[in-house]
Amino acid sequence: MTTPQYQVIRASLEARIVSGELAPGAKVPTEAELQAEYKVSRSVAQRVLNDLAQAGLVIRRKRLGTHVADGARQMNLMRSVDPRIGDANLPGRMEVISGAVIPAGKAHVTLPGVDDAEPVIQLVRVRRDPADDKATVVEIAAIPFALTPDLLDESLTDVAVRSYLSEHGVAIARSRMYFDPVLLDEENAALLDLEPGIPVLRRRRLMWQPNGQLAESAAYYLKPGAMEFYIEYSDENEPDAS
Asked: What distances in angstroms separate CA 41 from CA 27, 67, 106, 180, one per listed residue?
């Protein structure tokens, strides 16, 4: 099943906006520019920009063009689970807290179907806001060591786990995301510079290989107010989808 072209284009522009590459107030490519770059019809280009406007990421004004909205900090959660539309690309730099090989049973995330004694690589990282460098997200990811034995040799500030798995021949057949309201423990509260016991949203992602074995288990602790998340459905059979 292929992804509709307008979703691919929108995901690309959304990633540039959320990452800060297209800053608030920056001009977004016009319909004509999108048509030329992606070889699509005017209706597809128009839909891309209208969808971004409806999501609050851009503002469209006649004769003035389309510009990135102030405070655009939204992310389509489908991008965290659907490998066809690109990585999440959250804004800000990534700070590595730790990276180590540990038994699965001692990981800070659950690894269903993985024996407690099996070695996994656990990464603990903090995403920092590009504006003030304050912590916005704590990310804890665990990957079976056998899948990525050289991962710790990489620049862990730049590694996106899903892309890294794909680049190293690890196919992802299924992804699932959970949402849990939790109270911050002392360790994660310290990383987010918050008081322990504050309620936050925890996102958990599980990814499986075609053979049914787990490829990654990750948890994300989000600082309140740092991002807006949404899930969007579009009918891929619409006539303007290609």
From this structure: 21, 21, 53, 42
Q: Are residues 127 and 41 in the same domain?
A: no
Structural domain including 133 reads: 91-226
Going by the DSSP 8-state scheme, the letter that residue 172 receives in this structure is: -
Give strand pairing partners of 204: 178, 219
Residues 170 and 108 in one domain: yes
pLDDT in tens, 129-160: 766 788 989 999 999 999 999 999 999 998 88
Q: Is 225 left (phi over 0), alpha (psi -120 to 50) or beta?
A: left
Residue written as token pair 């800000």: 92
Residue-wise burial string across 199-225, b where 16 or more C-beta atoms lie within 10 A, e elsewhere: ebebbbbbbbbeeeebbbbbbbbbbee
pTM over 0.85: no
User: Which H/E stretch holds residue 120?
Assistant: strand 119-128
Tokens representing 113 are 């179907």
